[in-house]
Write a structure and sequence with these properties.
mainly alpha, 0% strand
Length: 283
């Protein structure tokens, strides 16, 4: 264990400028992701798997969703808190899944690094569960107006589509930069990783199953809404082509951006070259 900590310390001393770059990419990525959410969420052109559940719970709690649209006041006042609650639930299940996986691994290897990495992962997820909703709320309060976006979107279907496309693109580009920073991946990515390790399913199958699972609570909340036209309008407004874009297009979009980043920012190669050069100098 001491050797592992010594190795980490030595790597920090050698690669501090690379780690600073990764930290910069992380903050740029997570901010662009939050800005994308802040732009597309008020457009009512479809929500992501997670947002559909968040919107359905907000509609059930506050009941302000005339013609299927959540009131912008409800959205800006309560969205961040409900999203935080959702992330905490994901972290809870991640802990359960990873405990099962890690206990089995520790019995076989007796490697205490397993638990150190587990604690760091959960700590990072808790930070991100708080940080991302906070940034979304910050954007609505100081950068853009959710009310203005909602009014523009309602004035024209074309404007709504372009606003959604802009927000969706920012979200995907930000997510790609965030993932490429190779720092903390967040609750949703970690629960997917834990689910794969627990079930031994292949990544595409596990991801699709998780996407479906993310939507199911939203349909449960939606089922308890009063039976009227607004209920059906809410479903067709928030579970529409935008949702399909998140399920089927966001993954390939993120991968394309990551490939572009790989051509210009060869982080792993830079790390390997620096460590090899410094090892040679020591010898």
């Amino acid at each position: 264990m001491k050797k592992w900590f010594s190795k980490i310390k030595w790597q920090w001393q050698q690669l501090w400028h690379i780690f600073l770059l990764q930290g910069f990419l992380f903050f740029v990525g997570i901010y662009l992701t939050s800005l994308g959410i802040a732009i597309y969420a008020p457009t009512s052109t479809g929500a992501s798997q997670i947002d559909f559940t968040v919107f359905a719970l907000l509609a059930l709690m506050y009941g302000n969703y005339t013609a299927g649209h959540l009131n912008d006041t409800v959205l800006t006042a309560h969205y961040a808190l409900v999203l935080l609650m959702y992330y905490l639930v994901l972290i809870f299940f991640t802990i359960i899944f990873m405990l099962i996986v890690n206990i089995k691994a520790y019995r076989n290897t007796k490697d205490r690094q397993i638990w150190v990495k587990f604690i760091i992962m959960i700590f990072g997820d808790l930070v991100l569960a708080w940080l991302l909703p906070l940034l979304i709320h910050f954007n609505w309060k100081y950068i853009i107006s959710a009310d203005a976006i909602q009014q523009w979107a309602e004035s024209s279907g074309g404007i709504a589509a372009w606003l959604f496309l802009g927000g969706f693109s920012l979200y995907c580009v930000g997510l790609a930069i965030w993932i490429y920073s190779k720092t903390w991946y967040g609750p949703y990515n970690h629960i997917c990783e834990a689910f794969i390790k627990l079930t031994k399913l292949k990544f595409p199958v596990a991801r699709i199953l998780l996407d479906v699972m993310m939507v199911i609570p939203g349909f449960i909340f939606w089922a308890f809404l009063p039976l009227n036209d607004d209920k059906w309008n809410f479903l067709f407004t928030n579970f529409s082509f935008g949702t399909m874009a998140f399920i089927f297009i966001s993954g390939p979009y993120v991968n394309v951006v990551k490939k572009v980043l790989t051509k210009f920012l060869k982080i792993d190669l830079w790390k390997a070259n620096i460590l090899a050069r410094n090892n040679s100098a020591q010898l």
